[in-house]
Amino acid sequence: MIIKVLGPGCAKCTETEKIVREAVAESGVDATVEKVADFQEIASYGVFTTPGVVIDGAVKVSGKVPSKQDVLGWLK
């Protein structure tokens, strides 16, 4: 599983990355978490408001920080 956290490095983007990494650790899922700060790559997912989370190419959220419960649900 490849998880991409989309955002330039703002506070909400940093918080999103922290939540995603914690959820992956808790779930025990074999996943790679990548931080994407390149605006062209972010836009290629159709995300124009950050933070965003993409799991295996599917956009799960954009424009808000997800809860850990949300992320754990996506990992199942």
- Reading off the top of the CATH hierarchy, the class is best stated as Alpha Beta
Strand elements, count: 4
What is the succession of H and E elements?
A: EHEHEEH
Strand order of the largest sheet: 2-1-3-4
**Strand content of the residues, in percent?**
25-35%
Keywords:
76 residues; Glutaredoxin; 4-stranded mixed sheet; alpha+beta; 3 helices; 41% helix; single chain
Notes on the protein architecture:
- The chain has 76 residues and is α+β, with helices and mostly antiparallel strands.
- It has a single domain (2-75), classed as Glutaredoxin (3-Layer(aba) Sandwich), CATH 3.40.30.10.
- It has three helices and four strands, in the order E-H-E-H-E-E-H.
- It has helices at 11-27, 39-44, 68-75, and strands at 2-6, 32-36, 52-55, 58-62.
- Strands 2-1-3-4 form a four-stranded mixed β-sheet.
- Helix 1 (11-27) packs across helix 3 (68-75).
- The longest helix has 17 residues, at 11-27.
- The radius of gyration is 11 Å and the shape is globular.
- The model has no long low-confidence stretch (mean pLDDT 96).
